[in-house]
Automatic annotation (TrEMBL):
InterPro entries: Glycg_phsphrylas, Glyco_trans_35, Pyridoxal_P_attach_site. Phosphorylase is an important allosteric enzyme in carbohydrate metabolism. Enzymes from different sources differ in their regulatory mechanisms and in their natural substrates. However, all known phosphorylases share catalytic and structural properties. Allosteric enzyme that catalyzes the rate-limiting step in glycogen catabolism, the phosphorolytic cleavage of glycogen to produce glucose-1-phosphate, and plays a central role in maintaining cellular and organismal glucose homeostasis. This is Alpha-1,4 glucan phosphorylase. The modification N6-(pyridoxal phosphate)lysine is found at residue 674. One of its GO terms (cellular component) is cytoplasm. It is an enzyme of class 2 (transferase). Its EC number is 2.4.1.1. Gene3D superfamilies: Glycogen Phosphorylase B. GO terms for biological process: glycogen catabolic process. Keywords: Carbohydrate metabolism, Glycosyltransferase, Pyridoxal phosphate, Transferase. It holds the Pfam family Phosphorylase. One of its GO terms (molecular function) is glycogen phosphorylase activity. Its cofactor is pyridoxal 5'-phosphate.
Amino acid sequence: MKKSVAASEKPVKAKEFDKELFKRSVEYNVRTLYRKNLEEADAQQIFQAVSYAIKDRIVENWMETQKAYEKEDPKMVYYMSMEFLMGRALGNNLINLKAYKPVAEALEELGLDLNLIEDQEPDAALGNGGLGRLAACFLDSLATLGYPAYGCGIRYRYGMFKQEIRDGYQVEVPDNWLMNGNPFELRRPEYAKIVKFGGYVSVHTDENGRNVFTQEGYQSVKAIPFDFPIVGYGNGIVNTLRIWDAEPVECFQLDSFDKGDYQKAVEQENLARNIVEVLYPNDNHYAGKELRLKQQYFFISASVQEAVEKYMRKHDDIHKFYEKVTFQLNDTHPTVAIAELMRVLMDDYYLTWEEAWEITTKTCAYTNHTIMAEALEKWPIELFSRLLPRIYQIVEEINRRFVLDIQQKYSNVPGVDVQEKIRKMAIIYDGQVKMANMAIVSGYSVNGVARLHTEILEKQELKDFYEMFPERFNNKTNGITQRRFLLHANPLLADWVTAHVGDDWITDLPQISRLKVYADDKKAQQEFMNIKYQNKVRLAKYILEHNGIEVDPRSIFDVQVKRLHEYKRQLLNILHVMHLYNELKEHPELDFYPRTFIFGAKAAAGYRNAKLTIKLINSVADVVNNDPAINGKIKVVFIENYNVSNAEIIFAAADVSEQISTASKEASGTGNMKFMLNGALTLGTMDGANVEIVEEVGEENAFIFGLSAQEVINYENHGGYDPMEIFNNDQDVRKVLMQLINGTFAPGDPELFRPLYNSLLNTQCTAKADTYFILKDFKSYAEAQKRVEAAYRDEDNWAKSAILNVACSGKFTSDRTIQQYVDEIWHLDKVVLK
Ligand code: GPW
């Protein structure tokens, strides 16, 4: 084994951690903030005091970093995203400052417990799920690799709602995350921007004979940035997440035309208040709400204006903007940036269309995160043009020129129906603005988020665009940060890994493959299983405290945590639990390995079937957990309010990772990677990044089942399949389905789960039945679950597979993903601090 130097012994760029100074600073902060001694302060106050002490250290590095950027003038990426699911900052900052252990010790000397202090911090839940958490992992990797980057987003007053379960139902509770103030943020009023909505565009010709477009009669909002430090791991780099708050413009700043217009002042005040009020809780779903488009344009206009101004503070030639700046658009939500950049370049810097287009198309790059039709953003032109009249004009012109390009390219090509091409590819068609089309046409890169997903984009969903612009398309398989999801989330396993292979994995995850030689080592296997057991005890304690359910840490922890969505098929999982329960009831003598089925999921507030699935899971839990006849062999737990901080506890404790989406529907998945890194075995379909996970770890160390993506697509192209056939022939399926409508799990209201039953069998609706192939995959899933049980009984072999999962997770670090974005899309240079 190569002896690698422990990270904390390497020369550190930042100052050595001074325990005594830190302790004094905590005491000082408690005094100045709260006029209290440490003994008098409550836990929240201590959290604040500790955070301010840490912020002091961060700010030094932050200034150094920004000074270096100022001096070296490197190219920067602006990662534009409606969502940044950051979670808690304190623990992560300590980890990345390499100060976690010394701070924990210093606090212990003060009689304080760092874990409890961390628990005082609310999650920064400015995101729904995978897409928002990916953005957070990317920021961590960018800072750790030393790449100059800004995250640009919205400072929602209320983030993702808190989920409470009452009587088995999800209840949404507002997430007032800023209630106690946010110690790490910095308000930057000096960078405020004005964003304009509505009104109309007037055109006049200036003295040079050129057309000048001005927006008039508009309402405006002041955008004020708040900066969050993004601390790189052990390298002194601190990047910035800049999220925008909205304030009403002061009355004296009103258009002279509007001076003294009280009505207008009130409207502007309301607009400002509403705009950043709350994150839309929809995952993979477009709702077409006007306020959502306002949010999009609000933070994009402010971010684009700032990016251009920042560039112009150092440079004089706007034509070379793209040499120093690139915008990565996180799905279509921020794609209005394309038209906004065109607007700024033409209206504020007087560039011609051609000049502005050249710059814009070399600046913007787009990531696609789904092929699900209901997620595609298509804004009605009535709404779009009313809210953003100047932007709409520009989109129309982009579209006009693009349609000409299509005609030019295909008019004389035999066998091509040009009208059909236009119908599919135009940016404006059918009275709608199609944001994905605009993103593809107006940028230099289009990427999918896993190999299979990118293939489906190229060969099916975006086939016409791929044909026209093949060089733009590329794949960037997602990744996760091992610093949060192993080093912070699972200290026992992290220390064990470091003891065996050194700590290079912290910044170079593929190094973790050196664990492979321990996979067959009996002692290593025992140590690994013991760590897993302790993590299961930790989760069991959390479940008892938060759910009041007792679970046995010796049972198999079988976990599905992710947003609730029909395509993710939590329903398949719970139907199978019902089936197992039936088997146990019929054959009490059955040799059944105890299993704890753990669910965690938020449903969009208006998503009926998703919410009903939560109720079903809780109803099954009620019956199963309280039936003495099955002797506690099955437990079902629904963890309330699944979020980033409890996710860390959950991943560390999982034996089985449920990744069971309908093949072709999950673009990548990232939870699958977090489980793997923590030594859970994947039970999954060949979907998204599961394909690549299995490729890395070997099919013998995972449990794969179900239709392939191509099979699913073939069925879909032929109008689906007939679930009745399965219902009629498979008695297990039939029994479980009948239990959905005979009151087995809803004694007082047997019709309660009828909508779920109908979604699978469609006895009277007009919609297609079982569009997510749940019944079609049921048998194959049940068989895979049998293999899971058999495998778990062979403990040594299970430990071997689990260790191999950890050892083979190297590909799935977001450090690798970011390096590929840098090499193949952004072309940034590293900045090293002296
Ligand atoms: F619809 N994803 C998400 F594509 O979490 F925009 N929310 C979303 O609204 C969308 C995608 C969108 C997820 C994908 O479902 C998941 O497969 C992927 O791993 C993740 O984005 C990050 O790429």
